[in-house]
Design a protein that fits this description.
The chain has a domain of 65 residues. Helices cover 60% and strands 18% of the residues. The chain is built from one helix and three strands. It has a three-stranded antiparallel β-sheet. A hairpin with a 2-residue loop joins strand 2 and strand 3.
């Protein structure tokens, strides 16, 4: 028949399997969380890298655009030029200025 040693061995085997199952599931879940965290970190780094590249491109393009636009003031009339060609003329009161930029692109 089954001796006490066999019962003790069987209980230890079941306890080991139960503990392994519990901790195996726990470690598997923690590994999934760790992998997800690493993916999020990689995505954050990629977004940061792309935002730096966009900022660099904006800084490179902005001077070109600023050189294309210019204006001149005279007798309460303002003229806006694009690439040296007048594209708009009107009074200062008609001009809707979103930003208060002093002497931006003024033609002297």
């Amino acid at each position: 028949m089954i001796s006490e040693k066999h019962i003790a061995l069987l209980i230890m085997l079941l306890a080991t399997a139960t503990v392994y199952g519990i901790f195996g599931s726990y470690y598997h879940t923690m590994e999934d969380i760790w992998r997800t965290a690493k993916r999020i970190e990689v995505l954050k780094n990629e977004i940061f890298h792309l935002s730096i590249r966009v900022e660099e491109e904006r800084e490179a393009i902005a001077p070109l655009v600023l050189r294309l636009f210019s204006y001149s003031k005279g007798d309460s009339v303002i003229r806006i030029y694009y690439g040296g060609v007048e594209i708009w003329r009107g009074s200062l009161s008609e001009l809707n200025t979103t930003y208060n930029v002093v002497n931006f692109g003024e033609v002297h």
